[in-house]
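Re: weekly structure request thread

Next one in the queue (208 aa):
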Amino acid sequence: MSPLETISTHRLLPVIVIDDAAHAGPLAGALLAGGLPVAEVTMRTPAAEASIRTMANNTEMIVGAGTVLTIDLCKRAIDAGAQFVVTPGFNPKVVKYCVENSIPITPGVSTCTEIELALDLGVTTVKFFPAESIGGAKALKAICAPYGHVKFVPTGGITQATMRDYLAIKQVVAVGGSWMVAKELLNAGRFDEVSRLTLSAVSAVRQG
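Done, posted below.
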């Protein structure tokens, strides 16, 4: 099963900002305890690469890199063990590099134009970002209409209370969110709470 297929199976992608690489191991364990074996570690902090490496060493986890802004960042993330790449916007150079090197990528889009740029490069699964700020599920549903074969991973401001609105859209394969892996919880070492919130989110997805 490919990373994107695994994400689609679980329908949730925790988006993580890690300040301390020492938290990566316990975080992986907390996510697994909550029933979620996937994670996107954003390349926003100096601890990101080491954190990806630690989490990727756990064979039960599928770990990707987010906030990949350049080809260099992409190479560093893959070298650290990232199995997929996520970008906040549509950078043709990064997307083309990933496609040419068979690296699974979910590029960020917010317009029909960007969706069509993705399609031109053969990418059919995209990230709708920042979802809540640009109209939420209502806007995404309207954008979906002309692109019946495109799959979406909305991310940005989504909570457990709002995720069902997105998951109800046929073309949404998963939602990205940080509520179960909030930086404050990680920095405080509250991995039991991460597990609780993750389990709650996983249960909510299963219940539909």
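Residues 16 and 41 are 5 Å apart (CA to CA). The radius of gyration is 16 Å.
Next request, please.
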